[in-house]
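Human: I wish I could look at a protein chain and see how it folds. This is the protein in question:
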Amino acid sequence: MARGIGIGDLVAITATVRRQVTEDRVSVSIPSYNFPRSIIDHTKVKKGQQIELTGRDHAHRRGKRQGHIAMGPLVTVDIDKVRLVEKYRPPKRSKPLRDMVD
């Protein structure tokens, strides 16, 4: 499921809505994160509904199958719970870094 995820890739996590905190904020439960997280959501969601959160994969922890996902503050989750949305492609250079000598 998390095969081929690299640093800078856009990834998604499926979270479960826990409760409505305020008019525009909901508390969600992220798998393998072990802490509730409050997010801004302007749509009408209900308790128990699944929503998809996206963010950039920031770094991997050596020796463990965990990654830091940048969704505002960093969220550390198991790589198995993450789904790849889009690979990171570095920008192409239009001219070389240094001038060519004749």
Summary: The beta strands are 10-20, 25-29, 36-40, 50-60, 66-70, 74-78, 83-86. The chain has a mean pLDDT of 84.
